[in-house]
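Quiz preparation item.
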């Protein structure tokens, strides 16, 4: 009986390891969800393969343990890649950003979300699925008098940028034919430096090739940006996914050393980071923290501190 159970477990582990290893052969969109959970799957496989080794003590169980460890180690290495390591110059100035997908159907928590935005002391805030906050926009405007989105620059109330400083040359883009106006970009004069703020809500990666195509579209939009750039949003994918890694590399973007998990909220800190805050020098990302409460959303929000150089 023990031998049969070990054989069944080995087959299941082998199948799981084979599937997550396919990323090294092909970037097929059906594997996108699996790619984001590579670390989680690998850790489970390590534990199960150790049990199989204890029960069977054969060569196959050893291979499974080693294979799982390699995939786990590489997932950890990928998570740390593209991490910020810059030391800000002496004349750099602090800037704070809040980014939060509040969930369109979450109007019941609008006041609590507005309280959190205001209490964050952020210089700017990106809000996604912002229709839930329509009732509190007048209150938010007292602290953030400049906005892009929610009928300012677009007929929709989905993606929203709030700022304490004037938003210059603000404009929206539709990244694909699935949903409109899910990318916005503007410049602010930050202590004499032109800082570009960019916010995006990317389609889920298991919708054919839309995720990769939308990232390519964002790349084209931010390619021409000179000077400091802050890009944040709901990317619906972990930064270790192949298309996300290519996106970060091609745009010279940096992220937090360890990104807080933002989804699913039921998993808490054991989830994955699908909401991201990135920076391009001379905007230097110093720290990213997760909001303590999801406030009725299916995502956790993020707050990031930057130092903006000249």
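Solution:
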């Amino acid at each position: 009986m023990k031998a049969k159970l070990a054989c069944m477990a080995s087959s299941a582990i082998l199948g799981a390891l084979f599937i997550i290893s396919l990323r090294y052969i092909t970037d097929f969109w059906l594997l996108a969800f699996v790619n984001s959970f590579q670390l989680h799957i690998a850790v489970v496989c390590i534990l199960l393969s150790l049990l199989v080794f204890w029960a069977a003590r054969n060569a196959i169980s050893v291979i499974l343990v080693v294979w799982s460890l390699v995939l786990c180690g590489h997932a950890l290495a990928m998570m740390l890649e593209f991490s910020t390591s810059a030391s800000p110059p002496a004349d750099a100035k602090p800037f704070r950003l809040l980014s939060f997908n509040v969930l369109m159907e979450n109007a019941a928590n609008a006041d609590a979300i507005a309280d959190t935005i205001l209490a964050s002391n952020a210089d700017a805030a990106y809000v996604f699925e912002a229709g839930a906050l329509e009732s509190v926009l007048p209150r938010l405007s007292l602290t953030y008098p400049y906005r892009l989105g929610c009928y300012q620059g677009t007929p929709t109330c989905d993606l929203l940028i709030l700022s304490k400083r004037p938003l210059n040359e603000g404009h929206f883009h539709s990244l694909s034919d699935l949903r409109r106006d899910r990318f916005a970009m503007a410049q602010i004069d930050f202590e004499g430096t032109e800082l570009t703020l960019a916010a995006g809500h990317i389609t889920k990666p298991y919708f054919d090739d839309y995720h990769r195509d939308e990232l390519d579209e964002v790349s084209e939009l931010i390619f021409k940006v000179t000077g400091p750039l802050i890009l944040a949003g709901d990317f619906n994918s972990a930064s270790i996914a192949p298309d996300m890694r290519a996106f970060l590399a091609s745009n010279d973007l940096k992220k937090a050393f360890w990104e807080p998990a933002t989804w699913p909220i039921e998993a808490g800190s054991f989830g994955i980071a699908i909401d991201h805050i990135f920076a391009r020098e001379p905007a230097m990302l110093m720290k990213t923290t997760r909001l303590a409460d999801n406030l009725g959303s299916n995502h956790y929000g993020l707050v990031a501190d930057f130092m903006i150089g000249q």
